[in-house]
Amino acid sequence: MTTTAPVPAGPLTHDDGREVHKGMALLVLAISQLMVVLDATIVNVALPDIARALDIRSQADLSWVITGYTLTFGGFLLLGGKLADRLGRRKVFLIGAVLFAVASLLGGFAGNLGLLIVARLVQGLGGALMSPAALSLLTVVFEEGKERNRALGIWAAITAGGAALGLILGGVLTEYASWRWVLFVNIPIAAVAVLGTLKYVPESKDDRARGFDIPGALLVTSGLVALVYALVKGNDYGWGSVETVGTLVLAAVLLAGFVLVQQRSSEPLVDFRLFRSRTLLGADVGALFVGAGIFAIFFFLILWMQQVNGYSPIRSGLAFLPMTLCIGIAAGIGSNLLGKIGPRPLLITGPSVAAVGLVTLGLRLEPDSSYLGVVLPSLALVALGMGLTFVALTSAAVAGVPQEDAGVASALLNAGQQIGGALGLAILAAVSTARTDSLFSGDPRSPEYVDALVEGWGAGFLVGAAFLAMAGLVAATLVRVSKEDAAAALKDGAVHAG
Predict the structure, then answer these.
(1) Which of 25, 49, 250, 498 lies at a C-alpha separation of 20 to 30 Å from 350?
(2) pTM given for the model
(3) Total of domains in the chain
(4) Phi/psi of residue 383, nearest 5 degrees
(5) Per-residue pLDDT tens for 281-293?
């Protein structure tokens, strides 16, 4: 979330009178964004090595390495934007970068899963402080018009390409160094970001910003962590056990407390009046389901590639490269179609096509399946659907609210997708584990166990497809925005995306 501040007339200067070097400022901010985006995918390729090194035998427990980051990133993203506007964008950005680096160091030296999860939670918090602050700083440094659009184009390219780079870099580091380097690599990047920010990026804040809702952020994030914990451990404890039911009740109490705090706060984290817009509500709920359906494809397929088929980490990362390329191509197609047909048809078609890809994968994946014959066609369908969906979600969210709320709307969309991904991965991991346990409970080294394991992943893909289908149903029911408004919102709302 950003609040765009007017750029003063004349050369932009630092507090000490030095003229701001805009090119270097963009480089520093882009590097920081690349680090945050990389961390969403770079760890995926290292998951099997992490499981072996830390003796993690449950795939549900292993999923915390991913969900820990996405939960705190999504849960604190709105607060990060408000803190940046109120306290100073550069200051909050620097705090986030230091937190990110310290957490990366802690995670890299982690000797057990618990410490690694704590590190990932703190990394997510650091990313939630950095990302909105960095985008706000970019809109302050560059004047509105061609200059800012060019900078935002570079920013968008880094965001789009960062996921692919993360998979490849994660494979290289894991194979030739150690899984620990997928975390250690953040430390020098963060150091460059901090030093470069101090030298090249000016401070700015929004004098109109009044307050921020720390209790709300803590309640919603704690509630989501409790909910994910219950979902992840439900198979181990038993779904009717005191531990599981008690944790679910705790999650419900914390999330209900969040709603009450938002209704009574003078500066709520989430202003529920925005959800009077059916289009915004549809976009946000759709993003939640999209995140829930799509995150698990990386998690399960990485395990299938490395644990079952013996792929190297580099080969695993490269296997996903066609998917990221197809998403970029489909997003370009979606942008062109948006002004002709509007977002609603794309939000119905996109998730439906992606769901077909997941269903195909769920029904056809076997321990010895061909990558070219089974996996790649399914990944292409998922990528095509997601490329169409992402563009339409962004335009629908921003077009569904007045211009002054566009920043909040796009931040809600981003947070919803991250939170949906965390919840979805927890649910799909639980479904997968339950299916595998129901089929075989003997020696995990036996061929029968491998068959059951892959069938469990297949069940996870099918449930993921159901989540994507729900995203399409939500869009068909709630999204109502003209093609002209959606196209204009996508063009003008880019400065607010966070």
Answers:
(1) 498
(2) 0.88
(3) 3
(4) -65, -45
(5) 998 999 999 999 9
